[in-house]
Amino acid sequence: MLPLRDIHLPDPVGWWPPAPGWWLLTALILLLVGGFLGLRRRYRHRRYRRLALRELERLEQLPPAELAAGLSRLLRRAALCHFPRGECAGLSGEAWLAFLDRPFADNPFCEGAGRCLLEAPYRPATEIDSRALIELARRWIKQLPPADGRPGRSR
């Protein structure tokens, strides 16, 4: 008789470490969840900007006498949502226009169409360039930094 051994089965496959495909699937899922959370955060941080642009579209329908007052209130509310309260809440007159001009090199509020925001809300008979003022307000709102979700936050 020959000295033969019985058939030996391989050891059972362990669950650790996972195969490379499982590592790739895990990485893909983590990337998708991270991307989703990042997009959601970005969407939520730009919420105030979207609301301000929607309000601006509503203000476009107003007569010029009410437009300046509405734009003035809208810009103030948008500033309070995106900047620290102490930085913009107490500003008025020339200081307010200078604050609005900060992102622009051409000073459209102090020297351009936005200048009418000083007197037009209080003098309904003042002649204003509605189109230019609305476009200027739209331009200012679009350049706002993302808000952190807390209106009037302080840094």
SSE topology:
Layout: H1 20-45, H2 47-59, H3 64-82, H4 85-88, H5 93-101, H6 130-142
Helix pairs in contact: 2-3, 2-6, 3-6
Describe the structure.
- The protein is mainly α and 155 residues long.
- The chain has a domain of 96 residues.
- Helices cover 54% and strands 0% of the residues.
- It contains six helices and no strands.
- The longest helix has 26 residues.
- It is rod-shaped, with a radius of gyration of 30 Å.
- The model has no long low-confidence stretch (mean pLDDT 88).
Describe the largest sheet.
none
Average pLDDT over all residues: 88
- Approximate helicity band: 40-55%
Indicate the radius of gyration in whole angstroms: 30 Å
Q: H/E element string? A: HHHHHH
**Contiguous helical run count:** 6
Number of strands: 0
Q: Termini separation (Å)?
A: 90 Å
Summarize the structure.
By secondary structure, the chain is mainly α.
Key words describing this protein structure:
mainly alpha; 155 residues
